[in-house]
Amino acid sequence: MDRTVIAYVIYLVVSIALTVWVARTLSRNGRIFLADVLRGNEKLADAVNHLLVVGFYLVNLGFVALYLSDDDTVLDTRGIFEALSTKLGVVLLVLGVMHLGNVYVLNKIRRRGVMEREQVPPVAPQDWVAPSAGA
Fold first, then answer.
1. E strands along the chain, which residues?
2. What percent of the chain clears pLDDT 70, i.e. is strictly above it?
3. What are the TM regions of this chain, as residue ranges (predicted)?
4. pTM (predicted TM-score)
């Protein structure tokens, strides 16, 4: 079997396994964060969590597939490791950037929700006061 094909197979197996592991980890641990962002609405948090996981899979597996091809032919075992380290390193960086992007957007949504909750007066207004002439 050609060494380039061996490198492709190893790259695909490891990349897909890493993508699935990261997606499951983010989904499991991000559910609590989503529930807080969405003010305790568990059904909406589960739905958003599922949509984020699907999007995560689509983007990352699409990137893994696009990044599969290589112009260089792997000639020896050292070449396999060099090709794999470069490809897997880039995949890991993309997974990390995707994770940070998700957390950033959700944190922005959460902050906006906290600000909206803080703007509600603690006591309902009881009377209206006309502005004074000097003000």
1. none
2. 91
3. 6-26, 47-68, 88-107
4. 0.69
